[in-house]
Specification:
alpha/beta, 3-stranded antiparallel sheet, binds S-adenosylmethionine, 23% strand, globular, 10 strands, Rossmann fold
Length: 266
């Protein structure tokens, strides 16, 4: 499973100076949802797991603890430098679109916020299904960022700014080959890929200035600054978005996150 890879078009580059913060905010915002799902799947001692596009590695570490003794976790990423070593954890530089992947090898395959970004996501999904042992579980945790209404804003100007910010993010991601609504499409794609017992769980929450998900989108104004500017936002507007997201009166509905599990038939 060795490979050298680049990720053309992927908007959140792990070699960007903002990547460490991005992984920290992702873990704070979404690890509770992800690990609840993985626990529900029954992952435990002896399981062989694959974590695809592991990013900062927080889920891979959780899995490595969970499958001991006797289990193993393989964590892959095109840029895996942020994944700290741990016992029972193998870290690979690996492009899921094209590098070799063993077949019928894993009890669990998990990936969060990776297929969303990949134009080849259906081909990748087929590869993930082939990598599962019969009876194995695939869990995908994916956004639908096309949903996320503003609820209470300091004033109408702030509402307009927030909505333009979200619309620019949808455009810049789509331009890079992402499917901004992939979360809502994942369950159907998993069934078409041959999985059974497909179980999509949508998750929404109230976003305030204290929410880890809001810290993440505020951070996007820095991490994706150049792409936002290409979509017509100015540095002054991005600074105002950051102020708005830190305002104690800010209230919005989160984007939708879908945690979807399916099982490979025996
Ligand atoms: C949005 S981040 C999500 C990271 C992590 N899964 C999480 O949720 O915290 C997407 C990750 O996918 C990785 N990635 C992008 N394209 C990839 C590819 N073709 N194969 C493997 N990993 C890829 C990126 O380097 C990045 O670490």
């Amino acid at each position: 499973m060795n490979g050298t890879a680049t990720a053309p078009g992927y908007v959140f580059d792990n070699h960007n100076e903002n990547a460490t913060d991005q992984h920290r905010f992702l873990a704070a915002a979404y690890d509770p949802l992800t690990t609840r799902g993985l626990a529900r799947a029954g992952v435990g001692p002896g399981w062989r797991c694959l974590e695809v596009g592991a990013g900062g590695g927080s889920v891979a570490h959780w899995l490595a603890d969970r499958v001991a003794p006797g289990g193993s976790v393989t964590a892959t990423d095109v840029k895996p430098e942020h994944i700290a070593p741990a016992e029972g954890l193998e870290v690979l530089r690996h492009d899921i679109t094209r590098d070799p992947l063993p077949e019928a090898a894993f009890d669990l395959v998990h990936s969060r916020l990776v297929l969303l970004h990949l134009p080849e996501r259906i081909k990748v999904l087929d590869r993930l299904v082939r990598a599962l042992k019969p009876g194995g579980v695939l869990q995908l945790d994916e956004f639908d960022i096309t949903y996320g209404p503003s609820l209470l804003m300091p004033d109408d100007g702030a509402r307009d700014l927030y909505e333009r910010f979200l619309a620019a993010k949808i455009r810049l991601m789509a331009r890079a080959g992402a499917d901004p609504a992939w979360g809502r499409n994942a369950a159907g794609a998993m069934r078409r890929a041959g999985l059974v017992e497909v179980d999509p769980r949508p998750h929404l929450e109230l976003w305030t200035a204290e929410s880890p998900g809001v810290h993440l989108i505020s951070h996007h104004t820095r991490h994706l600054r150049d792409a936002f500017v290409r979509e017509g936002m100015t540095d002054g507007e991005l600074a105002r978005v950051r102020d708005l997201l830190a305002d104690p009166s800010f209230r919005a509905c989160s984007c939708a996150v879908y945690s979807v599990q399916g099982r490979k038939p025996l």
